[in-house]
Design brief:
By secondary structure, the protein is mostly helical. The protein is built from six helices and two strands. It has two domains: 3-118, Arc Repressor Mutant, subunit A, CATH 1.10.10; 123-165. It has helices spanning 3-33, 37-49, 54-61, 65-77, 99-113, 125-163, and strands spanning 81-85, 93-97. Helix 1 (3-33) crosses helix 5 and helix 3 crosses helix 4.
């Protein structure tokens, strides 16, 4: 097996184990929380973005604004979200997490990553150092792929446009 194939297989195997363990623990947390996947998705988005509007939530989830608004109403009643008026336009409502909502998201993240805290005990210091170095390289390479993707897409569109009669 070539080095490229070995690398790809090793990363694929790790990704499968990582996703299976993380998602199992996350799914367990979701069952305990009583929240639906769209509700969790909304909480996670607001955790990352801080604020957004109802229509942005609807677009992300692929549901109507009315359906998004109903879901958000329930989450506001549960004390997970709050609505505030936009300073520039009082008609526009922005959503944000409450302290309770932020704490719930943090619990979800912790549940998803808990099993990772057990890994160092199963590895030597040398193995841990090698993995840290390898993952740093892998992360940088993956980020470079992301950074290069928009430029490659632009070149591809230009090339296709030049080939048209």
């Amino acid at each position: 097996m070539s080095t490229n194939n070995q690398f790809t297989e090793a990363v694929r195997s790790w990704a499968e184990v990582f996703m299976q363990r993380s998602m199992r623990d996350f799914a367990h947390f979701m069952r305990l929380s009583g929240l639906s996947m769209p509700q969790i998705n909304t909480l996670m988005r607001l955790y990352r973005q801080k604020t957004c509007g109802v229509s942005a939530i609807g677009r992300q989830l692929g549901i109507s604004n009315a359906a998004a608004s109903q879901m958000i109403d329930r989450m506001v009643q549960q004390g997970l979200l709050e609505r505030t008026e936009c300073a520039g336009d009082r008609r526009v409502r922005q959503l944000s997490l409450t302290v309770k909502g932020r704490a719930l998201v943090q619990q979800a993240i912790d549940a998803r990553h808990h099993w990772l805290t057990q890994l160092p005990a199963r590895l030597t210091r040398e193995q841990q150092a090698a993995i840290v170095a390898g993952l740093a390289c892998l992360t940088e390479a993956a980020q470079n792929l992301e950074d290069a993707a928009p430029a490659a897409e632009t070149r591809s569109r230009k090339t296709a446009a030049m080939k048209r009669p």
